[in-house]
Design brief:
Strand content: 15-25%
Number of strands: 8
Oligomer: single chain
Radius of gyration: 21 Å
Structural class: alpha/beta
Distance between the termini: 53 Å
Helix content: 40-55%
């Protein structure tokens, strides 16, 4: 009987490893073929079809604690927008030994089982997982990730990552908030950091959708002519639907900004014209002036390259400058964020 059970278990394991994955579904756990002690969860976008002659955008996620499908749910809207496969490493965590081994095993297995596009391979993580996201490219002679999305902790870009884009998200009261600002300082057009109301926590669906679209758009310019339509057309149509449905002026501006990064497509001139029209509006002009002053504030007062566990608000001078900003720009989104950014950090 025991031999029969063993044979049946082996048979079912083989079936699972050889199954035809379908779009729009979560897969709870897939073991790495070369090193089965490591495994990962998957979400496949609705358009996914393993029989198609094409490669897919892919984002690999590393958490502070062990992962699974729950870690991916906040990224599903971004995955559908960018037609991206989502991967969550299950065993890697802050308390796991040999994380580099688990990371390499997961990445290699994903590349073997799925048709991953080398132009759209992204890595994300939260807290210690964000540090692993920063570290991921350094495991290879040449960077394999074209986009890095750290959340809630910083790291550093290596000299090899000259063509890698970075999008970061951090809670306004996260104890790593200054470290995040320090990490992104100097990236210029290679990076974008946003803050969201909250403490030390994962970014939400809104931030992940924005960040995944931003990384995807930046890398569209590297796609070959023969593959361009497969990667661009679905993205443009979905972004256009979001633009048509969006009622918030500032969110609409950022959608146009993201699309404006993409060159060489037939709608480019119309997108840039609409984007420039928005830039000329009084509301957006005030928003852009506020953004410059907001960034100057962060550059002046967010200078620590380490965690702030003092649980104290920023100093009196910072509080005074923040008050001046809020009085000057009472209606822009940065004001609500700055009010929290000068308050004490929390866990």
């Amino acid at each position: 009987m025991s031999k029969l059970i063993l044979v049946l278990c082996s048979f079912f394991a083989l079936c699972v490893s050889a199954q035809e994955f379908k779009g729009g579904q979560f897969v709870e756990s897939i073991k790495c073929k070369a090193n089965p002690k490591w495994s990962y969860a998957v979400y496949l976008p609705k358009d996914y079809d393993h029989t198609q002659d094409r490669k897919w955008s892919t984002m690999i996620c590393f958490g502070a604690s062990k992962g699974g499908t729950n870690a991916l749910k906040k990224m599903v809207e971004g995955a559908e927008l960018t037609n991206s496969i989502l991967i969550s490493s299950i065993e890697t965590s802050n308390n796991t030994k040999n994380n580099a081994e688990g990371m390499k095993a997961t990445i290699a297995d994903v590349q073997e089982k799925f048709k991953v596009s080398e132009n759209f391979l992204f890595v994300t993580g939260f807290s210690g997982g964000a540090r692993r996201a920063f570290y991921a490219n350094s495991m290879y002679k040449k960077p394999i990730f074209t986009g890095v999305f750290p959340c809630g902790a910083g790291g550093s870009k290596t000299s090899k990552e000259r063509k890698v884009f970075f999008f970061g998200a951090c809670g306004t009261n996260c104890f790593n908030r200054e470290e995040m600002a320090s990490s992104f300082r100097g990236l210029k057009k290679q990076g974008k950091l946003i803050y969201f109301p909250g403490a030390h926590a994962w970014a939400g669906e809104k931030e992940y959708t924005e960040g995944m679209a931003w990384l995807y758009a930046q890398n569209l310019n590297n796609v070959s002519t023969s593959e361009y339509d497969k990667f661009y057309s679905p993205f443009y149509e979905r972004m256009k639907k979001k633009l048509d449905a969006e009622t918030d002026t500032y969110e609409k501006y950022h959608l146009y900004e993201t699309l404006s990064f993409v060159k060489g497509f037939k709608e480019a001139s119309n997108i840039r014209r609409e984007f420039q029209n928005m830039q000329r509006s009084k509301e957006i002009q005030e928003y852009l002036k506020a953004e410059k002053d907001y960034q100057k504030f962060l550059a002046k007062y967010y200078r620590k390259s380490y965690s702030d566990t003092s649980k104290k608000p920023l100093n009196a001078k910072a509080q005074k400058d923040a008050t001046k900003f809020m009085e000057k720009y009472p209606n822009v989104p940065q004001t609500a964020l700055l009010k929290k950014l000068v308050d004490k950090a929390a866990k």
